[in-house]
Amino acid sequence: MNAVEIVEGEGRATARVVLIAAAAALGGFLFGFDTAVINGAVDAVRGSFGLGAGRIGFAVSCALLGSALGAWYAGPLADRWGRVRTMQVAAVLLAISALGSGLVAGVWDLVLWRLVGGIGVGVASVIAPTYIAEVSPARVRGRLGSLQQLAIVLGIFAALLSDAWLAGTAGGASQKLWLGLEAWRWMFLVAVVPALIYGSLVLGVPESPRHLVAKGRMDEAKQVLRQVLDLQDEHALQHKLGDIAQSLRSEYRPGLRDLRGSMAGLLPVVWVGILLSVFQQFVGINVIFYYSSTLWHSVGFSESDAFSISVVTSVVNVLVTLVAIALVDRIGRKPLLAIGSAGMTVTLGLMAWCFSQAAGSGAALSLPAPWGMVALVAANAYVVFFGLSWGPMVWVLLGEMFPNRIRAIALAVAAAAQWVANFIITSSFPALSELGLSFAYGVYAFFALVSLVFVVKAVRETKGMELEEMGR
C-alpha cells in the first residue's frame, strides 16, 4: 500500500470505529440516565408511599448495590458470552427496570426494580469501556475511551431535563400525566427508550476481536479487524491475529491474593486506588445529582425552579468534563486533583455557611437574600471543580496506576469500593439533612480537605508514563 492508500484506509477505519465506539458508549449514557433519573421523583415517591428519611434514602441508593454486583461479575460474563451479548443483557435489564419502577405499587417493589437496573448499570459501566478499548486503534484509543465519561454526564443531563419537562407538563411530579399515571412514574418509564436504542445499536456492532481469538473464532476475528482497522493485507492481518493470540497466552489472570501487601494487608498502590474511589464519593457529588431538586425545593425555591436549577447544573457538568478531557494530558492528573480538592473545600464550606443562615423549618424553610443566590453559585462552582478533577481524573488514574500484573483485579476492587462509598453517601443524605443541611455540607467539605492532603502526600503522577512503568 502506498502512503495515500494508508491515510485513506486509516480515515475509513477511524470513521467506522468512532461510530462503533459511540454505539457502545451509550452504555455510559444509560449509566448516567438511570442513576440520575430518581432526582426528580424523590419528593413525589416519598409522599406517595409515606416514607421516612431512612427508607427514601435506601430507595434512592439501592441501585448502587446492584451496580457493585453487576460491575464485579461483568468481566466473567463478557469472557463467557462475549462483549456484545453482555451489553445486550445490560440493555434488557435496564429496560425491565424502567418498566417495573414506573409501575410499582409500593416502595419495596421500587427497591427491587432499582436493584435490577443497578445490575444493568454496573455491567454497562465495565463492559462498554472494555469493548471500546479492544476495538479501537491505538492512536485514537484515549479519545474514544473518553466517550464513556462524556456519555455518562450527557445521560445525567438528559435525565434531569426529562424530569423537569415531565413535571412541568403535569404541573408537578406527583400530578397525573398520561394514562392516569403520575409524572414521577413517567420519569422512570421514559428510560425504556434509551435502553431499547442501546440494545438495538449494539446488535449491529461487531464482537471484540480479542474475545473472538480467545474463543478460537479466527476467521470472524479477521473479518472484524478488516472492518475496524481497515487491514486488507493478509500478512498484516495474520500478524495482528498472532499478536492478540500471544497476548492472551501470556496473560496472567490475577486474584485477590495478588493484592496482599504490608500496609494493612494490601499493597500501598491498592490502598491509593481504593481511597481515590472513596474520596470521589465522600465529597458528596452524587447528592447534587440525586437530590438537587429536593434540596433546592426544601430551601424555598419553587418545584419548577428547583428542576431548572438541576438541569443547569447538569449542563455545567457536561461542559467542564469536555474541558477536563482537553486538559488531562497537558496539566497532568495530580495537579488537577489538587486544584479540584482545594476548590471543593472552599465551595462546600461556603454552601455549609449559606445553609446555616436558613430561616424557618420544614416546608417553610427558606434562604434569605442574598444567601440563596450565593448557595446556588457555590453549588455550581463546586460542580465545576469536581468535573475538572475528581470526576474524570479518578477513572483515568484507576486505568493507569496499577502494575500490569494486578491491573484487572485492583481496578475491580477500587470500582467496587466506589459503588459502596456512593451507596453510603446517597443513603445517608436524607438523615444527615434532617440534622441540618449546614452539617451535611460541612461533612463533605471536611472530606474534600482530607482529599487534598491525600493527593499531595500519596497520589503519584502518571502523565506521560507507559503502563509498563507503573510497577517500578
Q: Indicate the CATH topology of the largest domain.
A: Growth Hormone, Chain: A
Would you tell me the overall average pLDDT?
Answer: 80
Domain count: 2
Structural class by sheet pairing and helices: mainly alpha
Question: Care to describe what's here?
Answer:
With 472 residues, the protein is mainly α. It is built from 20 helices and 1 strand. It has helices at residues 3-36, 42-49, 53-81, 83-102, 107-135, 141-145, 147-170, 183-189, 192-203, 209-214, 218-229, 234-250, 268-282, 285-298, 303-331, 333-355, 371-388, 390-400, 407-435, 437-458; one strand at residues 260-263. It has 2 domains: 1-205, Up-down Bundle (Growth Hormone, Chain: A), CATH 1.20.1250; 262-472, MFS general substrate transporter like domains (Growth Hormone, Chain: A). Helix 4 (83-102) runs antiparallel to helix 8 (183-189), helix 7 packs antiparallel against helix 8 and helix 11 crosses helix 12. Helix content is 77%, strand content 1%. The longest helix has 34 residues, at 3-36.
SSE diagram, text form:
Blueprint: H1 3-36, H2 42-49, H3 53-81, H4 83-102, H5 107-135, H6 141-145, H7 147-170, H8 183-189, H9 192-203, H10 209-214, H11 218-229, H12 234-250, E1 260-263, H13 268-282, H14 285-298, H15 303-331, H16 333-355, H17 371-388, H18 390-400, H19 407-435, H20 437-458
Helix pairs in contact: 1-4, 1-5, 1-7, 1-9, 3-4, 3-5, 3-19, 4-5, 4-8, 4-9, 7-8, 7-15, 11-12, 13-18, 13-19, 13-20, 14-15, 15-17, 16-17, 16-18, 16-20, 17-18, 19-20
